[in-house]
Amino acid sequence: MRTFRLMLLSVALLACSATAEQYTIHYDVSVTPERGEAAVTITLRGDSLPSRIEVHFDPDQHRDWRAEPALDIDDDVATWRPRASGDSLSYRFAINHKRDGDSYDAMITDDWAVLRSDKLVPPMAVKVAKGLQASAELDFDLPEGWSSAAPYESLSDADNRYRVTDPGRRFIRPKGWLILGSIASRQDVIADVGVRVAAPRGQDIRLQDALAFVNWTLPYLKEIFPDFPPRLLIVSADDPMWRGGLSGPNSLFMHGDRPLISGNRTSSLIHELVHVGTSIRGTDKSDWIVEGIAEYYAVEILRRSGGISELRFRETLDELAQWGKESDGLFTGRSSGATTARAVGVMRQLDRELRELSEGKKSLDDVATALAEDGGKISVKAFVDTAERLAGGDLESLADIKSRITAN
């Protein structure tokens, strides 16, 4: 289980901290609104460093690569071989990025910027000696009057400077949503989670309403996902940002116009909070599991917290079941709309069967908790195996899905 594995990792790190070799990663990010970009410099310091770092970048957003010593660039891969403490890699990142049509999932204006740090700093494949450990800091150089909100621990000795962690990784890079600029925010500690809700100053976004909604619902989510991150950043903004919700590590984005509870009695905000809590991701065959769990609990948590009645809860699930009939099937790639609604029906049937077989001792909660403890990419087989292990045998509610696995 993820909690147990992290405990073992912590014990091991404490045991070897006196002798383990360490190096530091320093990310310096300088934002220039008039150019619509950020200049990023990654500096390594230590007696021992990774011998090779392969950066897998987007040529449309990452450009002007430079390094000490020189690096090799082949299409969309930059290979860097640092040699001495103080060696650095730098590039420029174009922030604006359209998700579809005229809407953006990353944007910079004269007054603010909203983006994901795991896009700002692209994925890396690193060759590092066994036992070599890293620490990382992220430092923003911002225009006058700008500030930052990020889902990391803020360092007390400087503004806009953060300690970045990523348990189990020997090369740490920032992940999750960021908002920079002239921003307004509200924050509180809710169910032992430091929660901050932030948006560009001057936009008509009800930050206190969102914080109250999280205060109302997060304790119920933590009962299912006890390993929920200790920090949560919720970023919001109006048009032309994408009119929906998008989750990231320890964070999420929600368009300022999205209601906390939709007319069909689901909640996009709870849906994205479930994604943050599970930290699971799907494939072209299993995305329906990830989305189905999130959407099921977007309704179930409202019921448990008293946001909707038992009658409205059943009506909503019945309406989703009707919509799900429009789906061509669950194994259809990215799950959305009717496919996600159909997946909610599977979760509902599974929950019922587990409760009946166990006389109320097991439920879908146990499946969701187990999947979240493992985290990472999930397969259909892993989902079925987890549910059947908890049930102690075959499940009728998953018989058709299991037959598809066997057939393929």
TrEMBL record:
Superkingdom: Bacteria
Keyword Signal part of the UniProt annotation: yes
Leader sequence residues: 1-20
PROSITE patterns hit by this protein: PROKAR_LIPOPROTEIN
Keywords: Signal
Name of the protein: Peptidase M61 catalytic domain-containing protein
